[in-house]
Design brief:
about 60% helix; 4 domains; ATP-binding; glycoprotein
Amino acid sequence: MSDFCLQDAEFGPQSRCRSFDFTLVFENAILSMLPDTITLFISLFYLVTSSTWRTTDRVFLRVISCLLPLMSVVTLVAWSSSSPDVPATAKSYVTAALSLTILPSIIHALMLNLASLDSVTFFISFYLSVTVLLDTSRVRTFVTMGSGTTSEFFVAAFITLFSARVLTLIVLNIPAYTKSTAKATESSGFFSSIFLLWLYPLLWKGRKGNLEANDLSDFDQKSFDLYSRFELSWKSEKSKHPAKPQLFRALFQAFVPVFLSPIIPAVLMSLTQAAQPAMVNAAIRFIESYSSGLEPEPAEWGWALAGMFGFIFLTLTGASTLYWYSIARTSAYIRGSMSEAIYRKTLVLDVTCLTNVPGGNPMNLISSDIDRITTVIDPLHQMWSALITIALGLYLIYSELGNAFVATIIITIAIMLFTPYLSRDIRPLQTKLSGLADKRIRLISGILRQIRAIKLSAYETELIKKVSEVRKAELLARKKFWHKFYRVVCMTSVTMNALSLVTLSTYSIIAYLSHGESLTTAKLFTAYTAIGIITNPLYTIGQNYPRVSAAYACVKRIEKYLLSPETGSVQDASACSSDDDNSLLKGDDVITQAVVVDSSEKTGHITTSGCVEMDRASVGWNEKVVLKELTTRIQSNKLTMIIGRVASGKTTFLQSLLEETKVFCGTISYPWPRGSIAYCAQIPWLQTSVSIRNNILFASPFDEEWYAQVLRVCALDTDLANMRDGDATVASGLSGGQRARIALARAVYARKSVVVLDDVFAALDGPTAISIFEGLFAPGKGVLLGRTVILATNKVAHLRYADWIIAMDNASIAKQGTYYDLQGLSAVIESEQESEPAKAASGSGKKTTAIKAEDLPSSSGSIARRAYMHYARAAGWRHMAVYALLLLLTVGIQTITPIYLQIWSTFNDQHASDVKSLSVYLPGYAGVEVAYTIALCYLFYYMIIVVSQRASYNLHEWQFSAVIQAPMQFFDSTQVGQVINRFSQDISYIDGGLPLALYDFLYQFVRAFGGMIIMIVSLPYMALVIFVVMIVFYLVQGFYLATSKRVRRLDLASKSPLYTLYQETMELNGLMTIRAASAEEHFLAQSEVLLASSQKPFYFTRLVAAWLSSTIGLMTAVVNTSVVILAVATRRSASAGLFAAAMSQAISLQDMLNLMLTCWTRLEMTAVSLERNLEHCNLEPEDDAEDANLQEPGEAWPTRGEIEAIDVIAKYRVTPILKGISFHVEAGKSLGICGRSGSGKSTVLLALLRALKLEGTIKIDGQDIMNISRKRLRKAITNVGQEPFVLDGTLRENLDITGARSDEEIWAAVESAQLKPAVSALEGTLDHQMQSISPSLSQGQIQLLAIARALLADKKIILLDEATANLDEETDSLVQEAIRSAFKDRTRITIAHRIQTIQDYDQVLVLKQGVVDECGDPMKLMEKEGSVFRDLALASAA
């Protein structure tokens, strides 16, 4: 007999003749024909409009796709031939549905075989997902009816068609295994997309932790494209709101679709979460119906509930995955656009801003602030979506508890209003904290950039103390920030407790007084689940509001930076009085005049026409006039030389020609457009991370013939021939002369129409300087002849070659004219008597490697464990033990809460309106909640205030101490950007992200463990399910962790070369060199490549975390569905109360596991920073390897200062630089060392300081220095090197680093060093704030500062390596006299190119290619025919 009836011919939808089924008309019209029709139209539209066709290489997919139309036809034939016993109308609908199915099947088979997979796979997969879900009902109907109604052939054919669809769906969602994830992404099906299954090839490859950057596909949006979209929006924002443009508004307008993309998934997440209490209520009532003596509900309803649980949790998981995918893309958009914007801003930043950058250090903005902003995209969306969830949760509470929900509303509103009040001070505290972090990073960056000079002076201990003080101030500010954060988090963390206690108490009292229904199991746990749904959003708001507020402060910092002043080719000039030194007029006295630029000639021409005209121009920096009343004409295509004493304004004059200074009054007109200048700074600027060739080529194309000529002219051909890698050698570890010549070669090679040279011959010995000068300027053959050349110099012997000379004095032009016009000028007369090139501070010892990603450590679990042990040791084992006990106590109290509620609800089920419920159970419940509140708040306080603060201080202290005391070889082989990255971004993670991630992970881990125990106790069969899930979980975490940690390492490592480029660009001389040559595009291209490389791991780090969230969601869907299935299967013996307790834990399990693994992800990300910190902390100190042989001398050593060197061989790496030299300096005597560039002069001093590998013997006061620690040795010697270092801090701190000298002693040293006028002119004098990146003093004045520092040190031995190189002759003479007077009884060793500075020494040592060429009394050597020393002296005077 047929189970079909006449009602099957009606729409229905519910069938009255079959239990729990639809009518045939409804199933075929709505569940089959409707989706098929929609799909057919979309597919036809695609076929008509598509222009991309190709054949897929997935053979099995081609075969299985052809099976669908075949089985559709077979099924239709089977139906038509089966003579089904159904109403005619229903039969026609089935026939029509089966016929219509054939057309989409045929079209989809064509699309899968011929169309581009990346555009059709998702669509077809989505269609099959829908049809498989809907056809489940039809399969059930036909199978239930059996062959008696239709035929066995039709049933088999229909099931085969259904199976073919399922199989095709599976195949479409299996990602192809390729080396790159690009193809896997293109062929992603519906489930593959929403559950990120296409990442499996990447995870499989990364399971052994050997994933490389090339294995990651490029992010599909280039940083330039992202920046272009942002720039349009930012310009629009500034034009609409010129007074107060908002960066956040501009960002939102630029990327509206991306910012809004998480909305739909977030809404779906809220809806599915809100449906959970209703599902729990229905399930509890279903179980109760079998134990309450009432009529049991149909078993089909129970199984349907299990299916609904599965669907709800799968939907929640899919929505959650898509949400995290959207968050990852949004974060990458923001990072790409903001990094590009900040770097582009840096390239046009007014150089005066480098000393006090508005908004903060750009390195910190890029490394920390942008990262902090990207991490709050999720919290930002969670906060608004929380409001939806809260509203739905309140409605569910109202539906269960009636008027008692008013108490819930009051508490909810109070928490939501009080949270912003408690958070009101977080933003300013974050701004202050960021400022202090900037200060610390600037200080450390300055130290690292000048580390060689600092270590050779043995100032490690003092600088560790100084950095420690800055760090303490930063952590004090962080502690204040944590206190505010703690209040907000604690209030929202106990929301569940407060809401549950108030809501359930209110209902219990009302029910007792009104004799209403008491808190039954169904009512209590439904309300408890709904309260839990409200709690998570409130907790989210509480935890995220401070983070969003702090991130907003970062947005404002970046906004301020992007609005900071820019340099430009047109500046404003304000009229000023010639007798006003400061030239700061206000009000009506200000007249604006524009700097005129004659752009008739194009950049790149060898010659220009016209001249630079300065008419009473006053120029300077910020609001301070440095040069005043400049009136001159600089002719094009001529050689103009600038001379003057120290701090007379030569460098500022040249920078005015670069249009970098501010014109306060008067006019300056230029005959060339900006960007047509080759500039070579006084301190040679090189990119020490790239090769010598790339430094010389800079932004110019390679011209082999011209390149070879430039190398010859700049005397580099011989140097490069002696280098193993030639011009492919990385530009680090070079001598001062080599650095100067490479920088000069870059300026010459550029073939710019204008060449500006700032004292470029100062670093060269006499013969080399003469050779290069002639190659550049000799009549008839000089390569710079015919160009506009402006040369500032102290070697005024070259003045006779000048077409025009400008003499600077007292911040203005003292005199100008031809060489013959100025022959009576004192500076020229002195120079003719004693002229010698000086040597620029070159930093010859600095060594870094080429720009490349860091070498990554292995991904082994042992490293991670060591990292966590490292953190525990930093926090203190006692503190960690106390925290563990507090954690167990807190989670224990929380775990017993649902058990207590189950006992209470069971009592209420059996004793309606019993006073005991109100007098005993309610106070007991209140006690549990209060105890939990106190325990939780103290647990959080202990973590962030006690544990994290102590750990943060120790980790930074250990790391910096280890780095600054590391061997020189470490700095030779490590980029400064890499080390700075570890003190900026890594420490930022350790300070802020790690404590919260560790707290959340440990708490949720223990809580999840407790929840599983409750589920097993409630439903023993769940032990098997949980066991299987835990095995899967273990496999997944092992599968995930290796890839996640590796991608995270790639993320951090890929940032180092990017930060190195930024660091090099942000140097003052680098920035001016780049802008003068209009090379910004060249550096932007490098930045875009490096940024694109770092975007890949940044993006995939977040995608891998989203995959984990998806996988955990699938596992919790299995757990929740299993709980219901087991309850339905054992419905006749199951306890409703225990089932309710189990469901309360199962429902929250996904949140617990998701939060736990989200925190785990964050923890693993920060653990990489911990590993990197541990790696630095384990650096071997410079002297550790030799401790056993060291015999430290007494504190008074050396008492005399006698030095003896015997057969000394010194090596930088392998090749000896010094080849067996010997000399002897008696105590209190002086030794001068001279020789050509590269002869090994500076190496002698490095050997005395044990900065190289040594063979032979060096004794000081008879004691072998190899038996003395480097730190003790260097403490005994005053070293004034080629590159005097400047620290971020006051001038007093720079002069007296030990802090042991009085102001009187400091002023005396300043006066002796001829620095008093300059110091007196500084704001704050000795308390003037100095910055290493852009000091307030000229390079010559910085050398005087180093001399004053040496005078204050007052040690028995002093080493001077071209200590007065940047001084004019007169100042040098005065300083030399001060040195002779102050160190008359000290042992002095001086390296000099100015031979006259050592002519009165006791002896001189002439070096040639690492051997002693000549040694003796300088006066006697001057009288000796054929003396090498005499030849050098004569050459230097030429």
